[in-house]
Specification:
Structural class: alpha/beta
CATH topology of the largest domain: TIM Barrel
CATH class of the largest domain: Alpha Beta
Distance between the termini: 44 Å
Bound molecules: phosphoenolpyruvate, manganese (II) ion
Largest sheet: 8 strands, parallel, barrel
CATH architecture of the largest domain: Alpha-Beta Barrel
């Protein structure tokens, strides 16, 4: 159930609404927007009388939420969620500008990471990706460089100013990964690892939550609910292709998921065209489609030497291909009334 308050509500009246909800044993989740405040009620709604709520001072309307997900649902928030990154927190996802995250599938060493970071930064990427702990189908495949890779990511951030995103696979490693990374990635294979979702919900780091290989949109939103229920509202939903009967591509990019997620949720939507298509030549067309369909950002695999990459080389772009794709993406963004987020907000501001 959500309570929509009157625009003119006083702090006292809002406090009394919260008290009323909490005294019935439910949790009150307050979302303050520019024009309205919404109080979401989480718990056994049978204990709340809709009629009694409508009688409270400052209440405009009470609405039931029939969907199984609450905190990620559009009705629960007064405005779209925006998340800031970087130091100073200059890059924003969830607003008008589209963010681009780029980097290798796995961190394979210091030189290749610095090399990739410099190239993607120069081409306009806002954030660096790179796996330190890799979820591989085979236990004999390269599993990532672990903490050593986390340190390299932190060093590259210090040098380039780029915030970094990396995957965490194990609830026991959340604290460690969060001590190095700006954004915690939950991989597709872990979308329903509930102890992991709970653990990332407890830290103050934005989460990039990838849709499971066979997960419905509703299941993705329920996974976001797990994270948010612990108090971490900074969740980005990531469409990265789903399993279908088609074998010509690694996965099938569910373009419709972008507008559906935007209709259902206030959270930013990121698209991963690299894992969706599984082939370098498909990345640019899928990325352009994602922007045209309204994505708030992209995450793209770039490698200085894709042929010799230790993971996902077939779908990784060379730096030059990434740079020319960025030019195409900028044009598509302009065509739909948006822009790519500037890489250095301070520079962009002083130039404006
Ligand atoms: C990755 O980002 O390298 C990755 C393993 O992605 P996904 O979990 O979407 O397969
Ligand atoms: Mn990968």
């Amino acid at each position: 159930m959500i309570i929509i308050t009157k625009a003119s509500i006083s702090t006292d009246a809002l406090d009394r609404i919260i008290e009323h909800v909490e005294s019935a044993g439910l949790r009150a989740h307050v979302s303050r927007g520019e024009h309205r405040t919404i109080v979401g009620c989480i718990g056994d709604e049978a204990r709340l009388s809709e009629h009694a709520l409508t009688q409270l001072d400052g209440v405009e309307r009470v609405m039931p939420i029939l969907k199984p997900y609450k905190l990620p649902s559009r009705e629960f928030a007064a405005d779209n969620t925006t998340i800031r990154f970087g130091d100073p927190a200059g890059t924003v996802v969830g607003g008008r500008d589209i963010i681009v995250i780029a980097g290798p599938c796995s961190v394979e060493g210091r030189d290749m990471l610095f090399d990739t970071a410099r190239h993607v930064r120069a081409a306009g990427a806002n954030m660096l990706r790179g796996g330190a702990f890799k979820p591989r189908s085979s236990p004999y495949a390269f599993q990532g460089m672990g903490e050593e890779a986390l340190q390299m990511l932190a060093d590259v951030r210090a040098e380039t100013g780029m915030p970094v995103v990396t995957e965490v696979m194990d609830p026991r490693q959340v604290e460690l990964v969060a001590s190095y990374a700006d954004v915690l990635q939950i991989g597709a294979r872990n979308m329903q690892n509930f102890p992991l979702l709970t653990e990332v919900g407890r830290v103050r780091r934005p989460v990039l939550l990838k849709r499971g290989l066979s997960a419905t949109i509703s299941e993705l939103l329920m996974a976001a609910e797990y994270v948010m229920a612990q108090g971490n509202g900074d969740v980005m939903l990531c469409e990265r292709g789903i399993r279908t009967y088609e074998t010509a591509t690694r996965n099938t990019l569910d373009i419709a998921a972008i507008p559906v997620l935007k209709r259902e949720s206030h959270l930013p939507v990121i698209v991963d065209p690299s894992h969706a298509g599984g082939r370098a030549d498909l990345v640019a067309p899928l990325a352009m489609a994602a922007i045209a369909a309204g994505a708030g950002g992209l995450i793209i695999e770039v490698h200085p030497d894709p042929v010799n990459a230790r993971s996902d080389g077939e779908q990784s772009l060379e730096p030059a291909a990434f740079a020319s794709m960025m030019t195409q993406l900028r044009a598509v963004a302009h065509a739909v009334g948006r822009d790519l987020a500037p890489t250095d907000v301070r520079l962009a501001r002083s130039a404006a």
